Amino acid sequence: MIEEKGILFILSGPSGVGKGTVRKALFNQDTDLKYSISMTTREKRPGEREGVDYFYKSKEAFEALIQENQLLEYAKYVNNYYGTPREYVEEMLELGHDVFLEIEVQGALQVRENFPEGVFIFLFPPSLEELKNRIIHRGTESQELVLNRLKEARKEIEMMDAYDYVVVNDDVNLAVKKIQAIIQSEHLKRERIAKQYKQLLEDEL
């Protein structure tokens, strides 16, 4: 029996493209994927649970992990750190679980540097016009902020070359089907299987 290690899948794309919606739809289906739990220095909110919503750390402990390269990526928002712990991801992969990370483009590029063996999926808007409509329809941002977000989105789209796959999000269910197909095909890649069989042959000899 071949023990297959899990694969880290990273879903990313410009703000407003619908990453969260696609991820939720993917996890609403029967899936063996493990969601990558983030680490944060912010206070636990009522109803949140350690190791379910986040791993909660003090600022000092978080900064020590940064120094030790124990985070696949991290960022600071409003005086709090957020990041992806390497240990949790590697533990899940060793146990044979696929791990799914949904993240902003800058974070994905950090992960690419720290964990290049991950599989990077870029969620693409059907058009910039559609992206603009999605950002505007959130109704939470001023005109100036909408324009800034769009400028940022243009820059992020130019970073698409850092990814392995591109999925256009014009229909959530279709996007989910495409991501499931990517997951399946990654497990069937010759080099992954060859590595396992090589191990099997060495064990037999």
Automatic annotation (TrEMBL):
Q: Tell me where on the tree of life, at the top rank, the source sits.
A: Bacteria
Q: Where in the cell is it found?
A: Cytoplasm
A cellular component annotation (GO) from this entry: cytosol
**Organism lineage string:** Bacteria, Bacillati, Bacillota, Bacilli, Bacillales
Q: What is this protein called?
A: Guanylate kinase
> One Pfam annotation, family name?
Guanylate_kin
Task: Look up the EC number in the record and give it.
Answer: 2.7.4.8
Under which main EC class is this enzyme filed? transferase
* Source species of the chain: Virgibacillus pantothenticus
Annotated binding of ATP, by residue = 13-20
Q: Does the keyword Cytoplasm apply?
A: yes
Free-text function comment from the UniProt entry:
Essential for recycling GMP and indirectly, cGMP.
- Which InterPro entries does the protein's record reference? GK/Ca_channel_bsu, Guanylate_kin-like_dom, Guanylate_kinase, Guanylate_kinase_CS, P-loop_NTPase
Its Gene Ontology molecular function terms?
Answer: ATP binding; GMP kinase activity
Write down the chemical reaction(s) this protein catalyses. GMP + ATP = GDP + ADP
The record's section on CDD domains has: GMPK
Do you know which PROSITE patterns this protein is assigned to?
A: GUANYLATE_KINASE_1 (PS00856), GUANYLATE_KINASE_2 (PS50052)
The UniProt entry, under NCBIfam families, shows: guanyl_kin
Instruction: List keywords of the entry alphabetically.
Output: ATP-binding, Cytoplasm, Kinase, Nucleotide-binding, Transferase
